[in-house]
């Protein structure tokens, strides 16, 4: 299936998900599902000083959706909301097959690029990222400083 290294990263996050659960409080909250595959993802985040202090995911689904959610939490913890938006935009661009500049910073998230070879699974990989982007957008304007 996927290249070995990438497959290992995805399986590792699937078997040992990082940041599973719900944050307290839930300054950001979003749910998304992918009926084609049966994936359901809930993303919650706790904010502090304009940054994502903590981010967690809950729900269930296939290995790709779960691993993608786990990878996302590890990449976005500690980022400002603007940085998180930018990172999400970069990831979604990659998942549309567009060339990235400075894509190195995607780190483990780069492993999900292999999913592009399986177009029906792309939605699985992008689901958690769409959920968080929706939550970020709903937050905008609410807490202007
Ligand atoms: Zn799926």
CATH class: Alpha Beta
Here the CATH topology equals Sufe protein. Chain: A
Number of helices: 4
Radius of gyration: 14 Å
Distance between the termini: 47 Å
Overview of this structure, please?
Helix content is 40%, strand content 19%. By secondary structure, the protein is of the alpha+beta class. The chain has one domain (2-137): Alpha-Beta Complex (Sufe protein. Chain: A), CATH 3.90.1010. Strands 1-2-3 form a 3-stranded antiparallel sheet, covered by helices on one side. The protein is globular, with a radius of gyration of 14 Å. The chain binds zinc ion. Zinc ion binds next to α2.
Question: Nutshell version of this structure?
Answer:
The protein is α+β, with helices and mostly antiparallel strands and about 140 residues long. It has helices at about 5-15, 65-75, 80-95, 120-140, and strands spanning about 30-35, 40-50, 50-60.
Would you spell out the secondary-structure blueprint of this structure?
Blueprint: H1 4-15, E1 28-34, E2 39-48, E3 51-60, H2 63-76, H3 81-94, H4 122-139
Antiparallel strand pairs: 1-2, 2-3
Helix pairs in contact: 1-2, 2-4, 3-4
Bound molecules: zinc ion (ZN).
Structural features:
alpha+beta, three-stranded antiparallel sheet, 19% strand, globular, binds zinc ion
